[in-house]
Amino acid sequence: MEIIHIFRKVKKTGVEIKIKNKKYQIEYPSYIWEKFPKSLHKLFADGLSYISTWHLPFVENKSLVYHFSHPLVEPVFFKMLFYSLPMNIFERSDIRTSELLKKFYNIHFQNQFKALNSSYLGKKMKKRLKEKAILLFSFGKDSLLTYALLNDLEVKVIPIFIKEPQSIYENYHKKRLAEKFYKKIGEEIEFFPLSIGRLRQVEDLGWGWDIILSQYAFILVPYYFYYQAKYLFFGNEQSCNFYLKDKEDYFVNPVFEQSVSGMQLLQDIPQLFSIKTHIGSLVEPINEIFITYILHRRYPEFGQFQMSCFSEEPQAKKKRWCGVCEKCARIYIFLKALGISPEKVGFYNDDMLSLEKEKYYVIFDDGIGKSAYGGSGLGKDEQLLAFYLAYKRGVKGELIEKFKKIYLEDLEKRKLKLFENYFGIHSSYTLPSNLRRKTLRIFEKEREKAKKELLKFF
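RE: above sequence
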């Protein structure tokens, strides 16, 4: 089998990865890199080069030779990948979990690391970490609510948006939102350009996108040290823990890296560098529709900035919400269900309840072709609850009529159970112990408000 050779080099302000005579620079602000212990640079460079290139054999059907030591982070990412690969069965009907796992196993069996393991001289972080949180910030409902909660909890937030080079429309809109956010809120969003994003495949199954959040957790390690940050937060909600069995009887979670199990694996990353930064999610205990409720009811000054769109279609070039993706559809019905005007978040000129939009809703079309989560059908009950609440509010539309015809009789029997689940408070494993009580208290308070406001429609 043909071989791809991977080289890496520690540079003045980051890492250079060389593949087939092409160089990819991952550069940090000089003030960030200078605070990252030099004794950890090689360990970091090895790991970064590995996690950036693992998918290349899938794209080119070649094995890899890494011209550096075996990275200590490989077991973490190997397991993360092993449980994440099956998500692709929900995007393509012609593949099976067993085929994906076999290919993954065989490819990694052939990959080689040319150098012997070297001893890394990292020292344990002796300084006490500060009450600061690095937040993977995207202007989605989860990251906005997390930002607002951290403000309530008096934790200093460092919001960072990872700028993927192939996400042109998204980057444009997020930059504009960041400018408005700074003017109104006074918080500057740091944009981190990620050159290695050019290695991700766009066609076919899109190899390289499977575990990007895990990559981000690793890429931001130098920030842990500079800010001496006690936390790194994702916006992973309760539904990220859902799973089902596929046709071959495999358990599959379509968003495994965002699950509690995935976040627990990621906790090994800071430990490898002897720093005790906690990786978790403040919104783990609650579901998407409840997150939307809290964001827009308790923190409307932040909710106005929401953008939860894939931004992949040409329609997204000039529109914050493209109106032709499942995320636009899902958020639209959540907003309508909660009595929030879509226009408040910049959602204009798209009637997402017309018949032509039904293919974007999992309750009407749960077939292959959506995202992994959408294609799995796991969000169906939450969407049904949203349609029910919208109907009871008097929202009109062709899809409301279709919902009534197909589902209303069944929903009348299950509505209270669905409400208790999707407006309930669930597991909180990844919440830091010193923030858990205050966070859950806020959720409890908002749940009582939601009951008083929404159960009257039942």
